[in-house]
Amino acid sequence: MTIEQTRPSALERDVEDLRGALARLPFPALQDEVIAALVSRRAPSRLLWRVGSLSRTRLYRSLDEVLAELSSPRGHGTPPPPGR
Fold it and tell me: Fewest CB within 10 angstroms: 49, 64, 76, 82, which?
């Protein structure tokens, strides 16, 4: 196994960071509430970019539901390259 294979991907890192940043967010929640929680916690912009792809009208019942949608193969929430 190479070092690259043992490093978490950008998505895996972001999921873990989102899990920590949103641990106290009361659910159900809309995308705007998720974004507001991240802003109030001064989360990195890459996390805001990632959750910006969530549905604006869907009511998410749990943090796991949010993370599942972001991790889905539909490619939601890919952050821009560094420096952009």
Answer: 82
Q: pLDDT for 12-55, tens place per residue?
A: 999 999 999 999 999 999 999 999 999 999 999 999 999 999 99
Is the distance from CB of 60 to CB of 29 less than 8 angstroms?
yes
Reply yes or no: is the peptide bond before residue 81 cis, omega within 30 of 0: no
Q: Among 54, 64, 52, which residue's Cα sits nearest to residue 19? A: 64
**Minimal CA–CA distance to 70: which of 8, 1, 16?**
16
Domain ranges for the chain: 10-71
Calculate the CA 6 to chain-centre distance. 21
